[in-house]
């Protein structure tokens, strides 16, 4: 099952602009994570936000979490061509002692030089 | 140099054949996972293992099998019972010592059925 729904599915912007991606989910979570995937590659972890946090920053990344609305957003500021990739949110739950990640379908981000 | 390796990078299978995808990690992580990714989609969980000699089905386990004989290794077999196996397969591992840890992913294996 895919819990997360991401919006938009694809986003194309000019280099230097900011990119915002949104993620909504359905059930309660422990944490929410964002991953990046370059074409044909594995996933790289970007940032994790805990359910009791509202905002988190890491370099040019800013993540927000609204548990009342079951939604999160990822903002990439001052985008670069190298940011071109797919970005996935994943809800993080513990089920019978195992970490279970449930992924959204991703946002395909293209940064135009 | 710690990490997760997957092999082969590309794999071609004829219909009716079983194939095995390799996943090895030297991160000393207890938990390992297999995911399937279809074009333009997110990842779906096939199987996971929290400890050696134990594994559980994920959301789409039908047509797949796994083993966990060693902590470092978690091979996935795609059997002939899997009706639509063409996909990108990703393996991951997880430390699991504290909540909030992340999963570390391998580079993936692209399987194509001819």
Structure description:
The complex is a heterodimer of chains A (113) and B (114). Chain A is mainly β and 113 residues long. Helix content of chain A is 0%, strand content 60%. Chain A has strands at residues 5-7, 10-14, 19-24, 31-37, 43-50, 55-58, 61-66, 71-76, 85-95, 98-103, 107-112. In chain A, strands 2, 4, 5, 9, 10 and 11 form a six-stranded mixed sheet that branches. A five-stranded antiparallel sheet of chain A has the order 1-3-8-7-6, with no helix packed on it. In chain A, strand 6 and strand 7 form a beta hairpin. The model of chain A has no long low-confidence stretch (mean pLDDT 92). Chain B has 114 residues and is mostly beta strands. In chain B, the strands form two sheets. In chain B, strands 2, 4, 5, 6, 9, 10 and 11 form a seven-stranded mixed sheet that branches. In chain B, strand 4 and strand 5 form a beta hairpin. The radius of gyration of chain B is 13 Å and the shape is globular. The mean pLDDT of chain B is 92. Chain A binds chain B through residues 1-2, 4, 9, 30-31, 33, 35, 40-45, 48, 50, 88, 90, 92, 94, 97-106, 108, and chain B through 4, 6, 31, 33, 40-45, 48, 50, 56, 59, 88, 90, 92, 94, 96, 99-108, 110.
The gist of it:
The complex is a heterodimer of chains A (113) and B (114). By secondary structure, chain A is mainly beta.
The mean pLDDT of chain A is: 92
Which percent range fits the helix content of chain A?
under 10%
Q: Using only CA atoms, what is the Rg of chain B?
A: 13 Å
Largest interface: A-B, 31 and 30 residues
| DSSP summary: helix tally of chain B | 0
The fraction of residues in strands of chain B falls at over 45%
In terms of per-residue confidence, which ranges of chain A show pLDDT below 50 for 5 or more consecutive residues? none
- Could you give the distance between the termini of chain B? 36 Å
Please outline the major beta sheet of chain B. 7 strands, mixed
Task: Give the overall silhouette of chain B.
Answer: globular
Structural class of chain B: mainly beta
Order of helices and strands of chain B: EEEEEEEEEEE
Average pLDDT taken over every residue of chain B: 92
Helix content of chain B: under 10%
Structural class of chain A: mainly beta
Q: How far do the termini of chain A sit from each other?
A: 37 Å
Radius of gyration of chain A: 14 Å
């Amino acid at each position: 099952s895919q819990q997360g729904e991401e919006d938009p599915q694809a986003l194309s912007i000019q280099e230097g602009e900011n990119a915002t991606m949104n993620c909504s989910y359905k059930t309660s979570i422990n944490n929410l994570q964002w991953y990046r995937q370059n074409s044909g590659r594995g996933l790289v972890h970007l940032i994790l936000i805990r359910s009791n946090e509202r905002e988190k920053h890491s370099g040019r990344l800013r993540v927000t979490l609204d548990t009342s609305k079951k939604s999160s957003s990822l903002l990439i500021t001052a985008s670069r061509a190298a940011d071109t990739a797919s970005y996935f949110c994943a809800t993080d739950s513990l089920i019978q002692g195992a970490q279970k990640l449930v992924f959204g379908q991703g946002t395909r981000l293209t940064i135009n030089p | 140099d710690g990490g997760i390796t997957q092999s082969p990078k590309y794999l071609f299978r004829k219909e009716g054949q079983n194939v095995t995808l390799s996943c090895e990690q030297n991160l000393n992580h207890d938990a390992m996972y297999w995911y399937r990714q279809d074009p333009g989609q997110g990842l779906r969980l096939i199987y996971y293992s929290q400890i050696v000699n134990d594994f559980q089905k994920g959301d789409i386990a039908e047509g797949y099998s796994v083993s966990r004989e060693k902590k470092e290794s978690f091979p996935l077999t795609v059997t002939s019972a899997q009706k639509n196996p063409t996909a990108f397969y990703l393996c991951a591992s997880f430390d699991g010592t504290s909540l909030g840890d992340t999963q570390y992913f391998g580079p993936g294996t692209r399987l194509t059925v001819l």
